[in-house]
Amino acid sequence: MRPTLQFWFDFASTYSYLSAMRIQQAAAVHGVLVEWQPFLLGPIFAEQGWDNSPFNIYPAKGRYMWRDMERLCAARGLPFQRPERFPQNSLTAARLALAIDPGDQRANFVRAVFSAQFGSGRDVSELNVLSECLAISGASANLTGQIRAPHIKTALFEQVARAKALHIFGAPSFVVGDELFWGDDRLGDAISYAISI
Amino acid sequence: MRPTLQFWFDFASTYSYLSAMRIQQAAAVHGVLVEWQPFLLGPIFAEQGWDNSPFNIYPAKGRYMWRDMERLCAARGLPFQRPERFPQNSLTAARLALAIDPGDQRANFVRAVFSAQFGSGRDVSELNVLSECLAISGASANLTGQIRAPHIKTALFEQVARAKALHIFGAPSFVVGDELFWGDDRLGDAISYAISI
């Protein structure tokens, strides 16, 4: 059995963009499989008493995060454009990601959505942007018909419940066996752990 | 002129321990000078509405931090023991650090305090522990007489004001020129930046 790493992300999370763009290759080099696990931070932040992104609630933290993203993207050769609205509503994107079977098409879709938002500054709560991302991913355009389907709503609800059960409190998070790793900075450690067990 | 990196730390900060133990060697390899800048996070957290460590206010974050510290210390061969009380009152330690002239003795003292607290689990708000740290550092034991000296109180007050002016919101933080780097994970980036400008 190949070692597996769960990648938990919220489409509204800036640092999840960094991980989404490199995780597949970084894991593949070590023979590690990536499970792409979309979820929503909103309900988890709400339990911490936050009704907004901590980067908006705490201005010094937010100011730093945007500069940090700018520097990291430049260092990695990743396009970066700060979107006008932050955080964006990631509900529809998360549902669509779950509507796509796990595998390359889901991964392609996730990268397309993050690139549209943080590489091009577009609003990924808009259905026309998400439709473009679906087209790029190779998944069926008909999936937009499932956005309000009960089984997809339930699937996302269950993802949030799973994230809470895993003690996830931010994104990106990586889960390998019983270990939780938080933040793009821990991706390398998570992969190393995956191949060690 | 040798490139310089300001290292801003609070003695109560777990991740500052990680940086304190490696910064001098990591910087020296690249010919970078380290300025050891003690400050207090308390007044900065208070402005964010926190009257305690965020690791206590947000239990999932705290639970993760302790496990993360355990893993990182093991990987780096650093002793780690979770102190009974967290966060500890770091006021006296910070004042003593400022009472020691910048240089090797101050650096020795800082490492000794962090090691006592997070390597041995001791309470560094206790004067006898701090006196041992002074002895280890090579600084004069008489410095404990300055803990309530007006010029030392003022010096610490000014450190906090400087930290705020630098938009510091957490520890450890590294300042190089106009750039702020937050977290032990950014130490390498801060050093790289210092030698690039």
SSE map:
The structure is a homodimer of 197-residue chains.
Chain A (H helix, E strand, L loop, with lengths): L3 E6 L4 H15 L4 E6 L3 H6 L6 H4 L1 H18 L14 H9 L4 H16 L7 H11 L12 H16 L7 E4 L2 E4 L4 H10 L1
Parallel strand pairs in A: 1-2
Antiparallel strand pairs in A: 1-3, 3-4
Helix pairs in contact in A: 1-6, 5-8, 6-7
Protein described:
The structure is a homodimer of 197-residue chains. By secondary structure, the first copy, chain A, is of the alpha+beta class. Helices cover 53% and strands 10% of the residues of chain A. Chain A contains 9 helices and 4 strands, in the order βαβαααααααββα. The first copy, chain A, has helices at 14-28, 42-47, 54-57, 59-76, 91-99, 104-119, 127-137, 150-165, 187-196; strands at 4-9, 33-38, 173-176, 179-182. In chain A, strands 2-1-3-4 form a 4-stranded mixed β-sheet, with helices on both faces. In chain A, helix 1 links the parallel strand 1 (4-9) and strand 2. In chain A, helix 5 crosses helix 8 (150-165) and helix 6 (104-119) packs across helix 7. The longest helix of chain A has 18 residues, at 59-76. Chain A is globular. The termini of chain A are close together. In chain A, 41% of the residues are buried. The mean pLDDT of chain A is 97. The interface between A and B is medium-sized, with 22 and 22 residues.
